[in-house]
Every structure is written in structure tokens, then in C-alpha cells.
């Protein structure tokens, strides 16, 4: 299955336009840095970023693994929280009225201020980072699901009820599958925030990880290595983003087919 | 055994101040095909929601074979086909059986047997998006029929179809109904459709709805399209049109 899906994701028609733009920007950057003779501590050339990134590949990799771990655990927690909240809210109008305003309020928390406090409370381990990632990403997931469930055609609900179905059956047969398109949109938003959330949480304080790596390299004026870590972050984000399409095609193959019809 | 299959007795429904049904009464004999027509917004859909058990009436009762009707009495086919894109056509038609707790394998076997008479043979594993409008409506009807309910409630089933497809569907429905002997209540806006398919047509008044007129259609069955040229057909059509105009 996967080998038939990948070519469509990686088709030249899709990949070429963004690659052309990126190449053009990189060339401009390289030329500008060379011509203007900018010091690498201020702005290294793209070639230097690649060269130094490669030279420090062991350090980069050693810091990429913890970041990936934190992202995975944090996003898993976020998914669990988002799903539980959305289902609870879908079944109980009272809890919907109680919780939805609180969900919105949770998004007004300034993470910049909260993150250092989390480290004071929970230390340098996994927990504060997981909390930051969950805080940043559960909201789009919960809202995507809540709205997806609620967008169910009223007549479809009536049909299920006329068949003798109870609320749980209505959820299982209509609301849940019907919410999948909106869930995958939310998943894509969430996963991109998750990586930056992890980097940010590490930046504030960690033993290892791309975030703390960037912080340290910045302090020793290794702008080139900061940017190399940024490149790694971007690659991870794009890869995870692409992965959501793959999962979508495996889990809800009907969605695309229907959209085309 | 009572003579009537369904007795609707003094149904009244209000939405707040708005009285939608007012002391509405009629009955349907076993195997009879009865259509309900009326001006837009007269409360036909509310009537069907009450019959389907989706809404409690404020007053009145619906009796089936003399006993109060439950949600399991009527097989409800809404206006939209509501075939779900995440299910194959076959699995869409088994939905009601699955909801009722039948094992998926048995449900599929039962529904599959109806695919040929419903003109859907070979499309069991297709997705609803691959079906034509007429086929989608037949699949929706199959989903209703396979539940073995005592009475079919069809809410403007052909309303969204083009006129040629609609005529073909009406003729097809006339044929399968004769074969299976269903008792049917149909909502429609289409006088010609009502006359072609029905034994009796009920004309509702504007809100609050009551049965204003009852027109018996005295034409031999099974009927073919040519029946529209029969003088009795024209007479029934004219009578219904006059009754609707008066309202």
C-alpha cells in the first residue's frame, strides 16, 4: 500500500515549485554573503551551514533524538487529551458549555512565561516539555474534533435514530467517521506546532535536544550551527507533516476518493 | 385483526406558539400506498418525524394493528440519500441491521439478496460516490426496506432527481412494490407522482395541517407510464390540483 501512496506525495508536480523557490533564495543568500563579505558570526553562508552541520553531525544527531522523543511523547499526550475532551464535550451539552470557554482561555496563557516556571516545578526531565507541547497542540486537535462531530448532518442523526440507534451508535456510525476530514486538518496544524513546541521547551532548559543545542551554539556565536539545527528542525516538521497524509490515506481512504467524485 | 394497518388519531404538534399539526387523523390499510401532498411548509415533514418516532406529538396517537406504534414500526427514508462515503454501498444498506444488532455477516447476506431486484447488482463494493442519482436513491430505499419494518415512510425520495430518472424510478418503484406488497406512506410535491403510485392521496391544508381532501385513485395495477393518458388519471390529477389550489 505504502509504496503506491508515496509516489503521489513525492510527485515532481508537487515538489518542484517549492524546491525552485528554496533554491533561488539559497543562491541569493550565498551570493549576498560572499559579495558583501558578511562575518559568519552574523550571517554564515548556506554552504558554510551545510559544511559545519555535516562536520558536527554527531552532535546534531545526538540532540535530534531527544527532541524527536519529546515531540512524540508530547504529541501523543496531546492527542489523548484532545480526543477525550472532544468526546466528552460531544456527549454532554453541559460539559460543552463548561469546557469550551476554558479551552479557549488555555490558549491565552503566555507559554514564554509559563515554560520557565514548568522547569522550576518539574525539573529538566521529560514532564515540563511534554506539558508545553500538549498545551500548544491539544487545542487545535480538540477543536477540530469537536467541530467535526458537531458538523454531522442533522438528518443523518435522525436516520440513525429512526433505525433505533442510541446516542453511542450515532456517534460510532456517523459522527466519528464524519469528523475524520476535520481531524486530519487539525492533526496537521498540531504536528507542526508540536516540533516548534519541543524546540521551545528545550530552549528554556534541557539536558539535551535541538532547542538547548541552539541556545548553547548561539551563546558561543556559532550562528552556522544554530542554523544547521534549524534546518534539521524544518526537515523533521515537513517529514511529520507528510506523514499525516500517509496516515490519512491509510485510515480514511474514502476521504480523497469522495472529494474527487 | 383490525382492518386498518395504521390509524393516526388526532395528532397535534406545536413548535412553541406555532401550531403545525392540528387534530390530524387518517388511516392506511395493509398493503395500501398512500401519498401525502400539501402546500410547502404545511407540516408534512413534521408528520413524518412523528410517525418515525423522532418527535413526540403533543396530543394524539399512532396505532399499528391496534397497538401504539414504536420506533421499530416505520422504515424511514429521508429526502437526502444520506449514503455515507466511508462505507461501501453494501455496508451502507446494512446500516439499519447493524444498528439493530445483527451480525455484520448476516446483515450483508440479507442485504446482498436485494441488490439484483434493486438494480444494484455488481455495485456492492462500490463507494456511494460512484453511483448515479437514481442508483443512490435505490440504495437508500434498499437500506430502508431491508430492515423489514411494517410500513415504509418515504419523504420525497425522488425530489432531487432529473425528470427522466424520476419517471423511471417511479415505474420501478411501482413494480417492486407490487412484488413485495409493501405498505407505503409517501410525501411528495409532485401531483403526477402521487397519482401514479398511490391508491389514495391525502391533501393537507396549510398550517396547522389537517386532511383537507382524500382522493382515491381507481386505476388498475401494475401501472405503466402510459396510464397518465387514462381519463381517470387526468380526473384524479385535476381533482388534486383543485384541492391544492383551494388551500
Describe this structure in words.
The complex is a heterodimer of chains A (261) and B (247). By secondary structure, chain A is an all-alpha fold. Chain A has a single domain, classed as Orthogonal Bundle (MetI-like fold), CATH 1.10.3720.10. Chain A has helices at 2-9, 12-36, 46-55, 57-91, 93-106, 111-122, 126-150, 154-162, 167-178, 180-204, 210-219, 223-251, 253-260. The longest helix of chain A is centred in the first third of the chain and has 35 residues, at 57-91. Chain B is built from eight helices and ten strands. In chain B, the strands form two sheets. Chain B has a six-stranded mixed beta sheet, with helices on both faces. In chain B, strands 2-1-4-5 form a four-stranded antiparallel beta sheet, covered by helices on one side.
CATH fold-level name of chain A: MetI-like fold
Shape of chain A: globular
Give me the CATH superfamily of chain A.
MetI-like
CATH topology category name of the largest domain in chain B: Rossmann fold
CATH superfamily of the largest domain in chain B: P-loop containing nucleotide triphosphate hydrolases
Estimate nothing, just give the exact number of structural domains of chain B: 2
Strands of chain B, count: 10
Number of helices of chain A: 13
Contiguous runs where pLDDT drops below 50 for at least 5 residues of chain B:
none
CATH architecture classification name of chain A = Orthogonal Bundle
* Major sheet summary line of chain B: 6 strands, mixed
Category by helix and strand content of chain B: alpha/beta
C-alpha termini separation of chain B: 37 Å
Q: Roughly how many Å apart are the termini of chain A?
A: 22 Å
- The number of distinct β-strands of chain A equals 0
CATH class of chain A: Mainly Alpha
Total domains of chain A, how many?
1
Largest sheet of chain A: none
CATH top level class name of the largest domain in chain B: Alpha Beta
Amino acid at each position: 500500500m505504502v509504496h503506491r501512496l508515496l509516489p503521489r506525495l513525492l510527485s515532481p508536480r508537487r515538489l518542484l515549485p517549492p524546491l525552485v523557490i528554496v533554491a533561488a533564495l539559497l543562491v541569493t543568500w550565498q551570493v549576498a554573503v560572499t559579495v558583501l563579505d558578511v562575518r559568519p558570526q552574523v550571517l554564515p553562508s548556506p554552504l558554510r551551514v551545510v559544511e559545519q552541520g555535516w562536520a558536527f553531525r554527531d552532535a546534531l544527531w545526538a540532540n535530534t533524538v531527544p527532541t524527536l522523543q519529546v515531540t512524540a511523547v508530547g504529541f501523543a499526550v496531546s492527542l489523548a487529551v484532545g480526543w477525550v475532551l472532544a468526546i466528552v464535550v460531544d456527549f454532554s451539552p453541559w460539559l460543552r458549555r463548561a469546557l469550551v470557554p476554558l479551552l479557549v482561555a488555555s490558549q491565552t496563557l503566555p507559554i514564554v512565561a509559563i515554560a520557565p516556571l514548568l522547569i522550576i516545578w518539574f525539573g529538566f526531565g521529560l514532564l515540563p516539555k511534554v506539558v508545553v507541547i500538549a498545551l500548544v497542540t491539544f487545542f487545535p486537535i480538540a477543536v477540530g474534533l469537536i467541530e467535526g462531530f458537531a458538523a454531522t448532518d442533522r438528518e443523518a442523526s435522525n436516520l440513525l435514530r429512526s433505525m433505533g440507534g442510541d446516542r453511542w451508535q450515532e456517534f460510532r456510525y456517523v459522527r466519528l467517521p464524519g469528523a475524520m476530514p476535520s481531524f486530519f486538518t487539525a492533526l496537521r496544524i498540531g504536528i507542526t506546532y508540536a516540533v516548534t513546541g519541543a524546540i521551545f521547551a528545550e530552549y528554556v532548559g534541557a539536558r539535551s535536544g535541538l532547542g538547548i543545542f541552539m541556545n548553547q551554539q548561539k551563546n558561543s556565536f556559532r550562528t552556522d550551527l544554530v542554523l544547521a539545527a534549524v534546518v534539521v528542525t524544518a526537515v523533521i516538521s515537513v517529514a511529520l507533516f507528510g506523514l499525516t497524509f500517509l496516515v490519512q490515506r491509510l485510515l480514511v481512504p474514502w476521504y480523497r476518493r469522495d472529494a474527487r467524485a | 385483526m383490525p382492518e386498518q394497518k395504521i390509524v393516526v388519531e388526532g395528532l397535534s404538534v406545536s413548535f412553541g406558539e406555532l401550531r403545525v399539526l392540528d387534530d390530524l387523523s387518517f388511516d392506511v390499510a395493509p398493503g395500501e400506498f398512500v401519498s401525502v401532498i400539501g402546500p410547502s411548509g404545511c407540516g408534512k415533514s413534521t408528520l413524518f418525524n412523528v410517525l418515525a418516532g423522532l418527535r413526540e406529538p403533543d396530543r394524539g396517537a399512532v396505532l399499528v394493528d391496534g397497538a401504539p406504534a414504536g420506533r421499530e414500526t416505520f422504515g424511514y427514508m429521508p429526502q437526502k440519500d444520506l449514503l455515507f462515503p466511508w462505507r461501501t454501498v453494501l455496508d451502507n444498506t446494512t446500516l439499519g441491521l447493524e444498528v439493530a444488532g445483527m451480525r455484520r455477516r448476516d446483515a450483508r447476506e440479507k442485504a446482498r439478496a436485494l441488490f439484483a431486484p434493486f438494480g444494484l447488482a455488481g455495485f456492492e463494493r462500490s463507494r456511494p460516490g460512484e453511483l448515479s442519482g437514481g442508483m443512490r436513491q435505490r440504495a437508500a430505499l434498499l437500506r430502508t426496506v431491508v430492515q423489514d419494518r411494517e410500513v415504509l415512510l418515504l419523504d420525497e425520495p425522488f425530489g432531487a432527481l432529473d425528470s427522466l430518472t424520476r419517471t423511471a424510478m417511479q415505474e420501478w418503484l411501482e413494480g417492486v412494490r407490487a412484488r413485495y406488497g409493501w405498505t407505503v406512506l409517501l410525501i411528495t410535491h409532485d401531483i403526477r407522482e402521487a397519482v401514479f403510485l398511490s391508491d389514495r392521496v391525502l391533501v393537507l391544508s396549510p398550517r396547522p395541517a389537517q386532511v383537507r381532501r382524500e382522493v382515491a385513485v381507481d386505476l388498475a395495477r401494475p401501472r405503466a407510464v402510459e396510464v397518465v393518458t387514462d381519463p381517470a388519471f387526468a380526473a384524479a390529477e385535476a381533482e388534486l390540483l383543485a384541492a391544492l389550489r383551494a388551500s
